[in-house]
Amino acid sequence: MRNHRELRALRGATTAGANTSAAITECVEELLVELITKNDFKGEHVVSVTFSVTIDLNACFPAAIARRWTGWNEVALLDCQQMAVIGDLPRCIRMMAHVWLEPGQKIFHPYLRGAARLRPDRSSSIVGQSSYS
């Protein structure tokens, strides 16, 4: 344990409006802001983050976007392609972060934009543009 914190796994997801670097950057940054602010942690508390993307997203690496965040230079970051499942949510970016949090701290898993449909029980109020219906 690090300074009396508990290692927790945080999940989240979002969708990109298009397969462009700009669209992916926008939604990944939005997802990270929501994850960090709602769970109240700093980069030094993050152990690792794995991003998975659907097969229709290949314009840039979400981990490269996360790597630019202040204090995230020591974070282990990984991108992978998600299983291609018929009927899956298009242009979806999922993530799992391992973060040291205060014991008993309530955790928030952000599911934004079109990804709110994946986990309506955990969806956030941020609903950006998505063509998924």
TrEMBL record:
* Bilayer-crossing regions: none
Any one biological process term the GO annotation gives: chorismate metabolic process
Q: Which domain of life is it from?
A: Eukaryota
What GO MF annotations does this protein's record show? chorismate mutase activity
Entry keyword Plastid = yes
Q: Which UniProt keywords apply?
A: Plastid
Under InterPro entries, the record lists: Chorismate_mutase_AroH, RutC-like_sf
PROSITE patterns for this protein: CHORISMATE_MUT_1
Q: Which NCBIfam families match?
A: CM_mono_aroH
Q: What is this protein called?
A: Chorismate mutase
